[in-house]
Amino acid sequence: MGKGFFCEIMSKELLNKQDIERILSRIAHEIIEKNKGPEKLGLVGIQRGGVHLAHRLAARIDTIEHVSVPVGSLDISLYRDDISLRKKHPIVRKTDIPFDISEKVIILVDDVLFTGRSIRAALDALMDFGRPAQIQLAVLIDRGHRELPIRADYVGKNIPTARNENIEVQLEEESVEEKVVLISGE
Amino acid sequence: MPKDLVSIKDISKEETEAIIDTSLSFKDVLRRDIKKVPALRGKTVVNLFFEPSTRTKTSFELAEKRLSLDVINFAVSSSSVVKGESLLDTVRTIESYGIDYLVIRHASSGVPHFIARQTRASVVNAGDGINEHPTQAFLDAVTMKEKKGGIKGLEVAIVGDILHSRVARSNVDCLTKLGAHVRLVGPPTLMPLNPPEGVKVYYDMNEGIKGVDVVMMLRIQLERQGKSFFPSTKEFFKYWGLSAERLLLADKDALVMHPGPMNRGIEIASDVADCPQSVILEQVTNGIAVRMAVIYMLQG
């Protein structure tokens, strides 16, 4: 990789496919329990990882309760707070929320919770679509380092990290081997 | 993406495809109840139109407002330009306001290129003389992609006043880059002396639109024509106008396009302009999405 001895890239597998599936099953149960059933729910995944996770949670809720919960996808690039700091603007992906979010309990789904800035952007974006009764947050990984007063209602796994480390969530929907890895070093 | 969009020739095939895809994402924004996103909040754009324009200016202004830009319209007829200020001084004055984007239309070819070199702001060419109209080419490409699924391999006939058309010039470059086969159809008097490479020229309309997937009619630009290029508008319609009967020569699912404003009965028959194959109003809607995408993607 052309990297010197002192800045070697280390990557460590934290979760495998089976771990991820068990976590999602647990979160699906927690969501149903906390909301006393899935009737008022709507799932909204943040592009891209969150969208796959939202669909999987919906499938699990369907298996448990035999209710199909609507799923939407949300792209937050137009709501970010760092647009003027970047040279290159982020690619705008699809936002598709095929149901009315007003009066619903929206479960916002993301793969990694870090500074909280993406969630702030997602909340603003969601508000432009209607007025949900409540918004709850589900994440696969919480790696700490919050810069805003935001917390998740459902956490797959808390992973303490250093700021210069990186968490990579690889999901099989993107045609890769499913796992969560911690990458450290430059 | 570069700092400016002055010529479609500066935009690579990959960048063109990215602009088209991003435009389709912005089209979704325009379908929402709240059609405004905070993407460029706190930035400022000046629309500098030295040439009369209603639709392009409205389209740009709407696109800018949907991106949360602060919009200033610099009305040239009431500005210092009529008091004798030079173009460069006008631009320097506007730049001193602290702006981020400058959208320019001018009757002389090359003005946006000149200004882009003089300013730190991102410059968007909204039409310069008979030279280029890049955002029109992108919106036409978006419309074709949306309706036909793709652009590669499409047979596209551009018909009418090719010589005076910046729309034709930009479209030829954009479409050939994306792999479409372009035909230029019109009377010899309205055809450029050296047609661009890779396009086929037809002087017979029936021949020119035979089997095509897209018929793009151009407006007869009477205001740009110093002398007569054809005997009468009636005769023009007879030989080069798109009538319902003539449209049957194209593919049965061919799209009918027109950049507007239309001269009904001169280049296009009224019933054809309103027929189910016509996507003319779709082009207008796509124009807003494309202008949002272009402004958003330019590098500040």
Question: What structural keywords apply?
Answer:
heterodimer, A: about 190 residues, alpha/beta, 3 helices, about 25% helix, about 25% strand, globular, B: about 300 residues, Rossmann fold, five-stranded parallel beta sheet, four-stranded parallel beta sheet, 11 helices
Please tell me what the overall shape of chain A is.
Answer: globular
Give the spatial strand order of the biggest sheet of chain A: 3-2-4-5-6
Query: How much strand content do the residues of chain B show?
Result: 15-25%
> How confident overall, as mean pLDDT of chain B?
93
Report the biggest beta sheet of chain B as strand number plus sense, adding barrel if it closes: 5 strands, parallel
Measure the end-to-end span of chain B. 10 Å
| Greatest interface | A-B, 19 and 22 residues
Radius of gyration of chain A: 17 Å
Number of strands of chain A: 8
According to CATH, the fold-level topology of the largest domain in chain B is Rossmann fold
* CATH classification class of the largest domain in chain B: Alpha Beta
The profile of the biggest β sheet of chain A is: 5 strands, parallel
The CATH superfamily of the largest domain in chain B is known as Aspartate/ornithine carbamoyltransferase
Sequence of secondary-structure elements of chain A: EHEHEEHEEEE
Characterization of the model:
The complex is a heterodimer of chains A (186) and B (300). In chain A, the strands form two sheets. Chain A has a five-stranded parallel beta sheet with strand order 3-2-4-5-6. With 186 residues, chain A is α/β, with parallel strands linked by helices. In chain A, helix 1 packs across helix 2. Helix content of chain A is 25%, strand content 27%. Chain A is built from three helices and eight strands. Chain B has 300 residues and is an alpha/beta fold. Helix content of chain B is 38%, strand content 15%. In chain B, strands 7-6-5-8-9 form a five-stranded parallel beta sheet. The longest helix of chain B has 18 residues, at 13-30. The model of chain B has no long low-confidence stretch (mean pLDDT 93). The A-B interface holds A 75, 77-79, 83-84, 87-89, 91-96, 124, 128-130 and B 1, 18, 22, 25-26, 28-29, 32-34, 36-40, 42-43, 293, 296-297, 299-300.
